[in-house]
Amino acid sequence: MIVDTMKVFVTVIEQKNFTRAAEILNISQPNVSLHIRNLENDLGTKLVHRSPKQVRITEAGEILYKHAKQILLHFEEAKHEINDLRHVVTGKLRVGASFTIGEYILPKVLAEYAGQFPLVDVQIIISNTEEVIEGVRSNQLDIGLIEGETNCHDIHIQSFMEDEMIVVVPSNHTLSQMRLIEKDMLQNQIWISREVGSGTRTYMDKFISELGLIIKRSFVFSSNQGVKEAVKAGLGIALLSRWTIDREIETNEIRALTLKNKKIKRPFSFVKSKNSDESKAIKMFLQKIEEFRMNN
């Protein structure tokens, strides 16, 4: 099939090496050489110069490479359109999620999505909010799921549900038995926080600033689990998403505080490029996000 030959040719050119191309395509090196030789015979010209160290493309090869990339792109688009006719969802889906969503919400959404659309190749990256946004902006991610607000205007941002942030303390903390606290009771405390760039850290900093709190000392952890373990161990107090602490509150490993006249809410949002086409795989994933919102 000509598409297979084009794929071999493009891979050889991009890798500049027959052996690496064979490894990537999972075929033998002689098979790679045969594809290239047949192409050169069909076109009556040399496409590449071979040497022990690398492959160099000829002027004719440059022309073919440009058109081969278009052939492969059009073939993939045709496959997607044909699959749409058959109501089959295929392709690749690259999802990035900030830690709270990635660890506590995305697995539930993904389990249902993968069960319904098993032919979609899903790739997941969990990182902090700023890194997820940058992944969408650089086209390394199709969809990003982030916590909190962002001022980025070069990407599409849409909230899909609201999250409640809770002040939590160790079970043996002096405030742990109080049902309702005043803001001044949080003065001169030791705080456990996430790293800069995290959506949770942004809201903790905003919360402390709005209440004019003085911090006695702070410790920084790069995961929600690390923050929770530090609170459980009695190292300090923290501000965390309700999603991350329900189990620990039920087992009394940590205690949640209710602050008088103060509720801390933040949006969970999805972000995507303003310019990229929305494949059926992306549309169905966003539909699963909406179904999750309605059920929670």
Automatic annotation (TrEMBL):
Stretch forming the signal peptide: none
Alphabetized PROSITE patterns for the sequence: HTH_LYSR
Ranges for domain HTH lysR-type: 1-58
Gene3D superfamilies associated with the record: 3.40.190.290, Winged helix-like DNA-binding domain superfamily/Winged helix DNA-binding domain
CDD domains to which the protein is assigned, alphabetical: PBP2_CysL_like (cd08420)
GO molecular function, one term: DNA binding
Entry annotated with the keyword Transcription regulation: yes
Origin superkingdom: Bacteria
Keywords from the named record: DNA-binding, Transcription, Transcription regulation
Family note: Belongs to the LysR transcriptional regulatory family.
Descriptive protein name: DNA-binding transcriptional LysR family regulator
Species assigned in the record: Neobacillus ginsengisoli
Lineage: Bacteria, Bacillati, Bacillota, Bacilli, Bacillales
